[in-house]
Structures are given as C-alpha cells and as structure tokens.
Amino acid sequence: MAWTTLWRALRRGHATEPAAPLDEDLTQALAARLHRASIAKLGRSLTIRQVDPGSCNGCELEIAMLGSVVYDLERFGLRFAASPRYADVLLVTGPVTRNMEDALLRTWRATPDPKFVIAVGDCAIDGGVFKGSPALLGGVDAALPVDAIIRGCPPSPTAILDVLCALIEAHAPDRPAAR
Amino acid sequence: MTVRALLQAAPALPCHPVPRRLLSGAAWAEFAAALATDPSLDLRALWADPTHVHALLVDPADGSLHLASVAVESGLYTALSPARPAAAWFERMIRDLWGHTAADGLDLRPWLDHGAWTASPPLAARPSPNVAAPDLKEFLPVEGADLHRILVGPVHAGIIEPGHFHFTCDGETVVRLEIRLGYLHKGTLGLLRGKSPRTAARFAARLSGDSTVAHSIAFARAAEAACQATIPPRATALRAVMAELERLANHLGDIGAIVNDAAFPLLQSRFVWQREAVLRASDAAFGHRLMMDLVIPGGVASDITPDGAGIILSVLEGLEAEWPRLLASHAGSASLQDRTRTTGHLDPQLAARFAPGGVIGRASGRNQDCRLHPGYPPYDGMTLGAITRQDGDVEARIQVRMAEVMASIALLRQLLATLPELAPNAVLAERLQGVTAEGIGWAEGFRGDIWHWLRIEGGLIAHAFLCDPSWRQWPLLEAAVIGNIVADFPLCNKSFNCSYSGVDL
C-alpha cells in the first residue's frame, strides 16, 4: 500500500508550487514595520552589572531600591545581571581600593564590548571623602575609562534612573521616548 | 587572680567615661589566661596603636565597661584568641595594620593586607615599602574523598558588597565555610589621624553606609566623652529619632531580603515598599534619605523640619496598619516557614563565647542591647526591653527583627511627642584646643553594639578605632552555615547581614 502511494507521488512530480514572485512594495512596508517594532520593543534595553570596588554600601542600598516595586527599573528596559558576561553597563560604586583593583579589572574584561562604565556616587567620581588615602587607587577612572558619572552621597534612586534612561536615549536618538 | 582583680590592680590612665588600665606584659599574660576561665566579661573589641594593644570588655549583666592595654614588646603581645576565639580576626587585623603579632594566636594569616598596599603596616610608627605579597590562597585544609569546593566572590551575583566565600561541601551539604574579607579596605583609621573630631566625623559616617547614623552617634559620643561635653537634650532626642528610623528602614529591608531568598517576592515587595516610605520620611524630616552627616560631635547638623514629625508619624501609622497582614502572610506560608525554621542555627553556647550583639545575639538568647546596657541618653529614660528568642535559626532572627520594628515605632512616637526645646550645639573645638584626652562612645545600630575609641592629642585625633558589630558576627556565620545545604546559604547570610565595609576599615 505504502509503495503504491510512493510510486504515484514520484510519477506525479512535486506537489509544492514554486514561490510566487515578491510584491516588493509590500515586503518593504513589512520590513519597515518590523524594524520600527523591534527598535521600540527590543532596542531600548540595557543589562546592568553592579560592581562595588570600595563603597561604604550607601550607594548599593539606593541602587538595590531600583529593583523594588517603587522604581521598577525593568519597565524601562533596564535589568540587573548576575554576571558581567551578559552586561552592557557596569555601574561602579565607591573609590577603587588597591585590594579590589584586580577584581574590578577582571569584571570589566569579562564584560563584552560595546560597554559603558558609569561611576555612581561622589567616591566613584574622584575618591570622595576618601580621596588621598594610600589604600586607594582613586576614583573609578583611575582604573577604567568612565563614560558617565552620577553625583550624590549616595545619589537617590531617581537620580540613578534618570542617567540610565538618558543613556538609552542618547544611543537611540531617533527612537520614541521610553517614559 | 580574676580578670577584674587584675584590672583593678593596674594603673588607671585617663579615659572617659571609664579609665583605661595599663597592664604590664606579665599581668596581660595572666589576664589572657584568666579570660579562659572567667566567662563573666565579654570581649567586645581588640585594637591597637603604634605602641600598645587595647581590649574592651563588657559585663553583660550590668553593661559596665573595662578597658585594658598592654605595651607591645619587640613586636609581640600575648594573644587573647586561645581564651576568646572572637579575638582571632582582631589579632589578624592588628598585625596587618600596626604590625604587632599576637604570640600564640590561633590564626596568624594575613587579613586586611592582600599584598596590594604600597607600604605596610600602614598604621605603624614607620611603615616600610610592601615587598612580600601575602599568599591569599592559604585556606584551612580539608580532608575527605568526596568533598568539593565552591568559591564565590569577591564580586558577588547580587547588588552587595565584595567578599570571598570559600565553601567545602559534601554533596549539597556545607561542611566548612571560610570567609575572606578586606577587599573594601579604604584606610579609614589612617584618614582619621591628624583631624579634628568635627572633620573626621564624615569618615565615621561612611564606615558602613547602612549604619551611618549609629556610627556617627558612637563617634560623636566618644568625642564628647573625651572633652566631657554635654549636648542639648533636643540633639540627644533627634539622634535617637534618626537612629530608630535607620533601624526601621534596615530591618524592613532585611526581612524583605530574607523572604525573597526563600522565593517569596510578593511579601518582599511590601516590606521594601514600607522601607522606601521610611527613607522618604527621613528625607522629608532631615534632608537626607540615609541621614548621613546629620549627627556631628557636639549635637546635630540641623533641626527636624517643621512638618517632619507629622510625616514620620503618618508613615508609622501606615506601617502599623499593614503590619498584621504582613505577619500573617509570613507565618501562614508553609513553604516559607519550611525554609526559615531550623535553618542556619546558631548555638546559644557558641554565641556566648563570641558575644555577638544585635539581632544575631538576641535570636540566640543573648539579652544584650547597648541602649539598655550600659545605656545612653535618651534611652535611659524610656520604656524599652531587649527582645530575645531562643531558637537561633533564620526564623528567630526574622522574628526578633519584626518585634524590633514595633518597638522602634513605639520609641519614635515617644520621642516625637516629647521633643525638648531647641538649643545650640555644644562647641567641642574650644574645649579641645591643644588638649590631650581620650574617650569611648557606643551606640546600638541595627546590627548591634558599636564602639568608637578616640585618643586626642593637641586637639586632633592621634589614634582611633571604630568597631562595627560585624567583627564578632561574621565568624559565627561560618559556624551557623555548617550542615545546611548550599541553597540555604543566602538565607543564612541575609539573616546575619554582616557589614563588609564596616570591618574592612
């Protein structure tokens, strides 16, 4: 039975028709729609890895609040990653201690390019009140190239969120606003 | 001789509010031996200056303080760690910062010195260029065919401070945890030297950011004790308002973090929402969400805002209204209780040997709260009791925090209802002009008892030690986690919530 069916099918030739010629206009219109939708929905996203190479923990407290129900940073396309290997942004707090230099550099090297480094808080900017201590390298820029800074001791969750949203918008000037 | 008799027999050096007893080398050795057989005094802190080693002992029964010192001879002093194992971490720190070695100490491995400093020991009279890098790979040996190791950190997966956790496991069960800290060493004690207490206060405020108010209070009280200044009653009351707000915010955040690690984010979101409300009320009342730099030697940096008390009271009302639902949700979830009960058990007898303060001590039966013993204003005139549990597990530590949230609300209402009249701060600079003086101050932070010691010479800080409660708590986390599965470590760790920056100095 099966052999007969197979024989007939082979004699009849392909049942599948060749693809119809493309409607170029329609295809272009669909491609443009898809591009807009993907930029709006997927292009507005940054994955963040927080690193503390010397903070007093004040900045961590405020950064941690970003994930809370009050600030809910994920609605802006921002999320925290457990590993630098998935991160676009390193959010670095505190001065850089000599004891953390190696771990900070390793974390930076583990972050794929392109990557942004944001120095969060007065200590991360130039060492803050700890400036000049022989136990420190200095601010974050003593160890890494810094792309943006957020002032404050510690900066409020709102201030941190503002800069993160601005970072998304700065790199997508033609994209619709997130908020 | 007993510990007390040895201290009584030694000459008293001026320090306020208690004298510092200078023991001879032989008397200190006797003192070290007597500590092994006399459990009636807790060792709360051990530190040094370029020539001496100092110990703080507290009688847990009445909170009376005793300070003991010994001169370091040829770089050596008799170790206290054989009698009091909690001394081991302090002894490692003393060797790294001042270069004094604890003879016959339990553990002589480096601690804060990771071999990265330019000069070492940094607080010694004459530091030398750092040449020999200490071997960080030196962990305690483990034996057994089926054991494996899990190495975590210093960069952790969450938004927390850095530290290295070295687990040895038998299958899923942890058989040993060794913690390696020091990554956050900022040289804070060195930065304090040569500054006036007013200038140096900002370093105390940043020893551990979550305890900025409590550390600032202990620091200010040490400076005020040194020059025997009294501050206006309103400043005392406002400090306590800030301290209780800080306690509330941290306890709410901690309870939320623990239940979140048991996969209960719904409940966490409510605790964190309430934490945010407290932070906003603190901002509205004092102009800073964490209330940093607002407690200063001599008083407070600014008064409470005109509508501050009203905003705080309305937040307390909201928290109190939701509280029964939060408690019911916590107690009624069998899967949550399954994770928190019996987990991370801290044996009360072991706790007694390390004398941990705060929630960790009180959840293992220790009736210690330095707002009560030795006490300090304004708490000495208020209704307050130490909240204890006997179980010593993660659940007990949650329950102590929950009870303390309610206690802090009651204290805040009392304080805000009876705020004394506005009065100017005490001016310490005048009293300190060219003066040599010593003082010790304390405060109960959300983690426990904080002790700050200052030696002032010529009006400026010559030597200082800022002791976070975590010194005597971290080693107990190593013990409490043994026998638990690796997946329960986050619960154990969050329920302890020790400070990294606070002990990295």
Description:
The complex is a heterodimer of chains A (179) and B (505). Chain A is of the alpha/beta class and 179 residues long. Chain A has helices at 2-12, 24-41, 58-66, 101-110, 122-126, 157-170; strands spanning 46-51, 78-80, 89-93, 96-97, 116-120, 136-138, 148-150. With 505 residues, chain B is an alpha+beta fold. Chain B has two domains: 3-128, Beta Polymerase, domain 2 (2-Layer Sandwich); 188-469, Orthogonal Bundle (Cytochrome-c3 Hydrogenase, chain B). The two termini of chain B are 35 Å apart. Classes of the chains: A alpha/beta (179), B alpha+beta (505). At the A-B interface, α3 and α4 of A face α4 and α8 of B.
Sum this structure up briefly.
The complex is a heterodimer of chains A (179) and B (505). Chain A is α/β, with parallel strands linked by helices and 179 residues long.
Question: Would you list the SSEs of chain A in sequence order as H and E?
Answer: HHEHEEEHEHEEH
Secondary structure tally, helices of chain B = 18
> What is the mean pLDDT of chain A?
88
CATH A-level architecture of chain A: 3-Layer(aba) Sandwich
Structural class of chain A: alpha/beta
Q: How would you write the strand order of the largest sheet of chain B?
A: 1-2-5-4-3
Q: What is the CATH topology descriptor of chain A?
A: Rossmann fold
Continuous helix count of chain A: 6
- CATH top level assignment of the largest domain in chain B: Mainly Alpha
- Structural domain count of chain A: 1
Distance between the termini of chain A: 65 Å
- The CATH topology of the largest domain in chain B is what? Cytochrome-c3 Hydrogenase, chain B
Q: What structural class results from the helix and strand content of chain B?
A: alpha+beta
**CA radius of gyration of chain B:** 22 Å
Task: Describe the global form of chain A.
Answer: elongated
Residue stretches of chain B low in confidence (pLDDT < 50, at least 5 long) are: none
Describe the largest sheet of chain A: 5 strands, parallel
